[in-house]
Amino acid sequence: MKRILVLLCAALCLAACNRGPKVIISNPVDVKMGDPFVMLASDGHYYMYGTTNANRGYKAYRSDDLYNWEDLGMVYVGRKTWNQNCFWAPEVFERDGKYYMFFSANWKENPNNDDEVFRIGVAVSDSPAGPFTDMYDRPIFDPGYPIIDADVLFEEDGRCYLYYSRCCYKHPVESEIADWAREQGLYDEIEESWVYGVEMKPDFSGVIGEPVMLLCPPKSMSDEQAEWESRSVTCREANRRWTEGSLIFKDKGTYYMMYSANFFGGANYAIGYATATSPLGPFTKSADNPILQRNDAEGGLVTGVGHNSVTRSRDGRKMYCVYHGRTSATGEERVVFVDEMEIRDGHLRILGPTTRDGLN
Predict the structure, then answer these.
(1) What pLDDT sits at residue 277?
(2) What is the pLDDT of residues 28-41, one digit of tens each?
(3) Which terminal CB of the chain, N or C, has fewer other CB atoms within 10 Å?
(4) Tell me: the pLDDT tens digits for 204-247?
(5) How many other C-beta atoms are found inside a 10 Å radius of the C-beta of residue 303?
(6) How far apart are CA 320 and CA 224, in angstroms?
(7) Separation of first and last alpha carbons in the chain
(8) Where are the domains of the chain?
(9) How far is CA 184 from CA 38, 80, 226, in A?
(10) What SS3 class is residue 360?
């Protein structure tokens, strides 16, 4: 009997250790960052990376509860490989004991003197806390136009897929919203960013085949997605419609691709999602979109929500959406929010945006 009690106590202690500290919901968290990406590493800690004012690379933060974050300082510094002016939207993945950071930055080669020459690079580290160093002295590949917001999917069969957003820069697109903008005397043209996917070589040295366009803004104003994805234009924020910040994951055989639309610096930035049965689509946008948007019209404090990542509780039972936004108190500064997320009957739902305190 004594031995049974000892084993039972040991099992209970082990279960408690596996659960770790409780996740705390209290928004916004005390991190000023855009495009936050959170990873639960094998060491049991959460790590967050994102776009900050450090225009020479990336910082990282570490947490046990998704609320209290320790600033780890710079974990990647782009040196001679990249121009020292824009480093955006990093994501980090743990594979076979190594940590791989995929990121967007302005490439050093710019023969046409373009304002944007963004490409995607990859760096590696033995630790999620860095330091990360470039794997190659070049981008992963060059599609011939500026690209940002790398996201990676690792499949069970060993294949991996790279997703990215083609920049709006020098990408005017004809549509009914473009016709409307000209008729209103607002803009002569509407530029758009589109989400693409492509299979990537297992060593991340290049791609296999040609990129496939997966998501773009609607061409018809009667499309049920057109209203919310066109608010940057209709609210006169910019002559652009964005489809960016893609984040893909698989659940019960369905591929869910979350994405952000509208101007990242504006109040109407919002999140939607699309689904597919294969990693390169075709993807169908959800009729539930947008699933996260400003709430100030309903008495809330939050605007400009978007470019999210997804992480889970240590036991895998709960999903959390991590995104940036703004409040009346933070002004133009982007800050990080964490809200619960769920999938019910194939429908993805984010339980936010919230500005509350309390243990989960």
Answers:
(1) 98
(2) 999 999 999 999 99
(3) N
(4) 999 999 999 999 999 999 999 999 999 999 999 999 999 999 99
(5) 21
(6) 27
(7) 36
(8) 2-350
(9) 42, 46, 17
(10) coil
Pairwise CA distance, residues 349 & 347, whole Å: 6
Which pair of structure tokens corresponds to residue 34?
A: 């855009």
Which residue do the tokens 């005017």 mark?
Answer: 172
* DSSP secondary structure, 269-330, as one string: -EEEEEEESSTT---EE-TT--SB---GGGT--EEEEEEEEEEE-TTS--EEEEEEEEETTT
Read off the tokens for 143. Answer: 């599609």
Q: Which two tokens stand for residue 216?
A: 């773009």
Closest CA to 349 of 358, 357, 340, 359: 340
Other CB atoms closer than 10 Å to residue 135's CB: what's the count?
16
CB 303 within 8 A of CB 352: no
- The pTM score is 0.92
| Amino acid identity, position 20 | G
304 contacts 267 by C-beta, under 8 angstroms:
yes
Non-local CB neighbours of 185 within 8 Å, separated by 6+ positions:
none
Per residue in 57-90, pLDDT tens?
Answer: 999 999 999 999 999 999 999 877 788 778 999 9
Q: 2-350: what fold?
A: Tachylectin-2; Chain A (2.115.10)
Cα–Cα distance, 315 to 20 (Å, whole number): 9
Give dist(CA 90, CA 70) in Å, integer.
Answer: 18
Average per-residue pLDDT for the chain: 91
Beta strand pairing status for 147-154 and 160-166? antiparallel
User: Higher confidence at residue 354 or residue 10?
Assistant: 354
Q: What letter represents residue 241's amino acid?
A: R
pLDDT at 3: 41
